[in-house]
Specification:
Helices cover 88% and strands 0% of the residues. By secondary structure, it is mostly helical. The chain has a single domain, classed as Up-down Bundle (Four Helix Bundle (Hemerythrin (Met), subunit A)), CATH 1.20.120.
């Protein structure tokens, strides 16, 4: 029994155990990062197409409503509210420059007041919605090649 206790308390054994513990901690962190990356990839591929379709639908409706801007102010507000929600949901599934672009558009959509700002800024929002859709679709195509 003393031999086992002496072996377990020897300096070289404790050094090896400490190194093994640190290595296992690093491996656990690496596994955690990889699991998070895989999870975000599957959430992205499952949910983002629906959100992009929603943005496309909203931009199409917005285009139709802009033809008679004054007559469709209530509908324009509803479309913009739905667009803002979709953009915030989309931003949670993105990283990097794509996320910044989506959040910037969400801020613009939230701050837009059709009664005071008129049709010009709404057209800019419409164009930016198309840019976001194109950016996300390009990102989706790029991700197909990564996996």
């Amino acid at each position: 029994m003393e031999a086992i206790l002496a072996f377990l308390t020897s300096p070289w054994f404790t050094a090896i155990a400490s190194v093994a513990s640190i290595v296992s901690l690093l491996l656990s962190a690496l596994v955690l990062l990889n699991v998070r990356k895989i999870r975000s990839f599957y959430v992205f591929t499952a949910r983002v197409p629906e959100l992009v379709d929603r943005l496309k639908t909203n931009s199409s409706e917005l285009s139709t409503q802009m033809n008679d801007f004054q007559g469709f102010l209530p509908q324009i507000r509803l479309i913009l509210a739905d667009t803002e929600v979709a953009l915030h949901s989309l931003s949670k599934k993105l990283r990097g420059p794509e996320k910044r672009v989506v959040l910037a558009l969400a801020v613009r959509v939230k701050g837009y007041d059709p009664k005071h700002e008129g049709e010009g800024p709404l057209r800019d929002i419409y164009v930016d919605m198309h840019k976001v859709v194109a950016t996300i679709e390009d990102l989706r195509e790029d991700l197909k090649w990564e996996r």
